[in-house]
Each structure stands twice: as structure tokens, then as C-alpha cells.
Specification:
431 residues, alpha+beta, GMP Synthetase, Chain A, domain 3, 13 strands
């Protein structure tokens, strides 16, 4: 076992292991480390940890000391010098007419070495530039050409997802990304959609690649010949995320049906000829492939919840709706309008709950306590005056058939049985 500490020299940079030399270092503390470039300031990201000897590369460089206040002041002065060196280097590049873009300037902890990072499309002859910079800073000058991915890592920014760049926040090193990953994940091959801020393929394509590869191994390919619970057919479309497959059945080739991957049985994988000696199994055997899919689970859960509520004598959500307001009957009046109608409603008795409407073609139910009036022969329906000069009361059925108030559209009157008409003149009987 070997005791190590993890140190990172830049934010989002790679983590390196060093020998603590018996000192206890907490994460977040500044340390001074001896490197190949001399003394460097870094920040501890992993405290004292015991690891196997095979996990580290021997020999480990030692920890010099914990950073003091004086060391922190030196780091701040170096940052101010870097800003001044950046401006001077840009002026020198313009003076020499070099095709290069300066990205960042880095001072060593001791200040005896200055590192300039730049990007360029091709090779650049910067020998004259190095001599000019050395005469200005009186230090060792090193110019290093980097790629666009390293430039994005140094500058930082926001990705198309709205979050800080992965390379500038937590990625220790760049992972290889290829266009094959985009094809496996069924992404658009448009470079503007699958490229990051740096102009290269997005690093996040690597994150879900293993899950997609596993789904591809388990699911059938396009144009595969499969057996489904509803018959045999050919695969037309595959959805890796939902693990669903659209199949063109031999019986219904124009209407593809969707099935879950667990309901399929692959007979031929990929495009090719159908097996010559293949005989489709009977429908009873194919029906055994039917399983509960994730799409059907919510419906089954709802049915189980309704059955549980029925056991507790609680009505379902559909039956708990408030009853419809009963329809009001209005009298037919020749005049009076809305005023007379309003007075009648104010003095009317409370309404009874509505009864179910009989089917079309049947008459309305009559009250049980009143006998059905006998029908008179045609021509005898005319009301005759009673004693005292008072006319006979209006039949209750005629009062129930109301007329809409003035200004409203009349509804068509529906006749359920033929009524005798008494408005025609009566013919005297022949003698």
C-alpha cells in the first residue's frame, strides 16, 4: 500500500498523484509541488489515501510544503504579470505578421519561465517572435501550439445544453468521439447539431454510448423477419430508447403495428431471404408471446385502483360528477313574454329531479296517480262551456308542452301519438 494525495494545477485539469511525505493534507488546501518544470503551486483535490502499489506510477514526486500566505501572494503577482504578457505578445504577433491566435499565458511559480499557448491552422515559424519576447521579459520563453478542444477547455463557456462546458468543469482528459456513435444513437448527422462549441463532435456522445450498444445487441435490426403475437412480419422501424419495434405484418402490410422487444421472436436477423422451410406457427402459439408492455401498465394500474375503490364503496372519478340540472317545463303562452315567465318561475314549487328520458319512439311516462284520459272520436275534442259560463280547464299535457319565451327560437314539436283534431267543422250525420 502507498499513501498518496491528489493535486490539480488548473481548474478542470488532470489530477496528479504525489507523495505527501507523512504530512496530512485536506482537500482544498494549497500545496507546493516539485515537478519536472520546477516548483509549482497546486490545489489538493484528494486527501491522504492508501492505494495499491499497482494503481500508481512509481516513483512519486514528493510534496515540498503546504502553501503559505507568502506563496499565495506570489501566485497573485504571477496572474497580474500574465495579463501584461498577453497584451505584449499580441502586439509582437501583429508586428511580425504571424498567422496565429494567442489563447493563454502561464507563468511558472518561480517566474523564470513563461508559457504561451496559441492556435493556428498550420505550422508557424515563431523563432523571431521568441527572440523578441525573451528580450522583453528576460525569462525562458516557450510557445506551444494547441488544438481547438484545448482552447475551449482553457477559455470555458456554455454548451448548447446551457451548462458549463464539460471539458472546463470536470473532464480530466478528452475521450475519443467518432461519427459512428452518432449513427448508433440515431442522431442527425448534421455537423451543426452534433458539434460542440469547439467545432468538434460533442464529448457527451460518449456518455450514453454503452447503453445504446447494449440496446442494439438485444433488439432486432431493420428488415428482420420476426414472429409477433398477431402474426409474422418484417421489422420496419426500431426505437432504442423505448425498446419498441414497428412490424409490417404479412396479413396487413400497409398498417405497421408497434410491439415491445420482449414480445418478438427473431427468425432472421437483418435483411435477407426468408427461410425456405419456415412454417408459421398457429395463432394460439403466437398469442403466448403477448406480455404486459410499459405502455399498458398505466391502464392496468388505473383498473386496479378503481376496483380497490369499489371495494371501499367509493364511486370512481367518472361517476362522481355532479348531476345535470333538471330541465324546466314552460307553459305555452300567446303573449306576456319574459315578464310573465319570470313571475311564474318565482311562484313555482321546487322542481323534482329529472327522470331518465324514454327511448325514441315511445311515449313519455304518465303519472301513476292520474288515469289516462280516454280518446274521443274525431270532431268531439272541442271543449264545451261548462255551467256558469266557465270554460273547461286546459289539459295538463297541453300545459306541460311549454312554449319558449318571446325572442327565443322555437324548438320543433315532437309528436309521440296522433291526437284527434277538433278545429275542422263537424259534418252532420246523414238522416
Amino acid at each position: 500500500m502507498t499513501e498518496i494525495i491528489g493535486v490539480r494545477f488548473k481548474s478542470g485539469g488532470k489530477q496528479y498523484y504525489f507523495d505527501p511525505q507523512g504530512q496530512q493534507v485536506a482537500p482544498g488546501q494549497g500545496v507546493i509541488i516539485e515537478t519536472s518544470r520546477g516548483l509549482e503551486y497546486g490545489e489538493c483535490t484528494q486527501g491522504n489515501t492508501m492505494v495499491e502499489d499497482e494503481e500508481v506510477v512509481q516513483p512519486l514526486r514528493p510534496l515540498v510544503r503546504l502553501a503559505t500566505d507568502r506563496d499565495l501572494e506570489t501566485v497573485e503577482r504571477n496572474h497580474e504579470k500574465e495579463k501584461r504578457a498577453f497584451t505584449i505578445c499580441q502586439e509582437k504577433i501583429a508586428a511580425h505578421g504571424l498567422d496565429m491566435k494567442l489563447v493563454e499565458v502561464e507563468y511558472s511559480f518561480e517566474g523564470n519561465k513563461i508559457l504561451f499557448f496559441f492556435t493556428s491552422e498550420g505550422r508557424v515559424d515563431f523563432r523571431a517572435l521568441v527572440k523578441d519576447l525573451a528580450s522583453v521579459f528576460h525569462a525562458r520563453i516557450e510557445l506551444r501550439q494547441i488544438g481547438v478542444r484545448d482552447e475551449a477547455k482553457m477559455l470555458g463557456g456554455l454548451g448548447i445544453c446551457g451548462r458549463p462546458l464539460c471539458c472546463a468543469s470536470f473532464l480530466d482528459e478528452f475521450q475519443p468521439v467518432s461519427i459512428k456513435m452518432a449513427k448508433t444513437q440515431n442522431l442527425s448527422l448534421n455537423p451543426t447539431k452534433i458539434s460542440g462549441t469547439c467545432g468538434r463532435l460533442m464529448c457527451c456522445l460518449k456518455y450514453e454510448q454503452e447503453a445504446y450498444e447494449d440496446a442494439v445487441r438485444r433488439m432486432p435490426k431493420n428488415e428482420s423477419f420476426v414472429e409477433t403475437p398477431e402474426g409474422v412480419g418484417t421489422v420496419s422501424q426500431v426505437n432504442l430508447l423505448r425498446e419498441t419495434v414497428k412490424v409490417r405484418l404479412d396479413d396487413q402490410p400497409d398498417a405497421p403495428k408497434c410491439f415491445h422487444n420482449c414480445e418478438l421472436r427473431v427468425v432472421r436477423s437483418g435483411k435477407g431471404k426468408r427461410p425456405e422451410d419456415y412454417v408459421a406457427p398457429p395463432p394460439e402459439e403466437l398469442a403466448k408471446l403477448r406480455k404486459v408492455t410499459p405502455v399498458e401498465e398505466p391502464r392496468i394500474l388505473t383498473e386496479n385502483a378503481n376496483s380497490a375503490l369499489a371495494g371501499l364503496s367509493v364511486p370512481p372519478a367518472e361517476e362522481s360528477a355532479p348531476p345535470a340540472e333538471p330541465r324546466r317545463n314552460r307553459r305555452r303562452r300567446k303573449s306576456g313574454g319574459e315578464q310573465a315567465q319570470g313571475k311564474r318561475e318565482e311562484g313555482s314549487a321546487p322542481q323534482k329531479p329529472s327522470q331518465p328520458k324514454p327511448p325514441r319512439g315511445e311515449g313519455r311516462p304518465r303519472p301513476e296517480n292520474k288515469p289516462r284520459p280516454e280518446q274521443k272520436p274525431r270532431g268531439e275534442n272541442r271543449s264545451k262551456p261548462q255551467e256558469g259560463g266557465k270554460s273547461a280547464p286546459v289539459p295538463e299535457k297541453a300545459a306541460a308542452e311549454g312554449q319558449s319565451p318571446a325572442g327565443e327560437k322555437k324548438r320543433p314539436r315532437r309528436r309521440y301519438h296522433r291526437r284527434p283534431r277538433g278545429d275542422k267543422p263537424q259534418t252532420p250525420p246523414a238522416q
